Amino acid sequence: MADEQNSRTEQAEDVECDSCSERKEKAIKTCLVCLASYCETHLRLHNELNVGKAHLLVDVTGELQKKTCPQHHKLLEVYCRTDRQCICCLCMLDTNHKGHDMVSAATGRAEKQVKVGQFKSKVVQVFNIQCI
């Protein structure tokens, strides 16, 4: 588990600014609207150009591609319960998902976390009964 955490930290440290043209600086934030990571200088510029716009900045992630749709290159914001996968808003409109049960990705994640917690409790309970 510690190795996994170190790997994530190293990945985040290795992310370069998408806007630097010559010497690539280390990115400090990722914009989930622009789907780009920015160094301190370019983050200031990004913020100045997008004043009053709802851009969501998060800590740098080396796994941005995992959070974007491979087909539409949009953020995976919707969870399709029917297909048990995250999709983008354009996929949601696609005939492949028409009539499917969908919620926000955040809601889908929260529901999964509750189920995992319930499963863990059952495993502990069964383990405790068998050890008595």
Q: What can you see in these coordinates?
A:
This protein has 132 residues and is of the alpha+beta class. The chain has two domains: 1-66, no CATH class; 68-132, Classic Zinc Finger (Double Stranded RNA Binding Domain, 2-Layer Sandwich), CATH 3.30.160. Helix content is 41%, strand content 14%. It is built from four helices and six strands, in the order H-E-E-H-E-E-E-H-E-H. It has helices at 2-13, 40-49, 89-93, 105-131; strands at residues 29-31, 36-38, 57-59, 78-80, 85-87, 102-104. Strands 2-1-3 form a three-stranded antiparallel sheet. The protein has a three-stranded antiparallel sheet with strand order 5-4-6. A hairpin with a 4-residue loop joins strand 1 and strand 2. The longest helix has 27 residues, at 105-131. The radius of gyration is 19 Å and the shape is extended. 11% of the residues are buried. Residues 1-12 have low confidence and may be disordered. InterPro entries: E3_ubiq-ligase_TRIM/RNF, Znf_B-box. Keywords: Metal-binding, Zinc, Zinc-finger. This is B box-type domain-containing protein.
Shape: extended
Q: Would you report the number of β strands?
A: 6
Oligomer: single chain
How many domain units? Answer: 2
How would you sum up the major sheet? 3 strands, antiparallel
Helix percent band: 40-55%
Question: Structural class, please?
Answer: alpha+beta
Radius of gyration using CA atoms only: 19 Å
Record the strand order, biggest sheet. 2-1-3
Query: What is the overall number of helices?
Result: 4
- The whole-number mean of residue pLDDT values reads 84
Strand content: 5-15%
Unreliable spans are 1-12
Separation of termini? 29 Å
Q: Give me the strand/helix succession.
A: HEEHEEEHEH
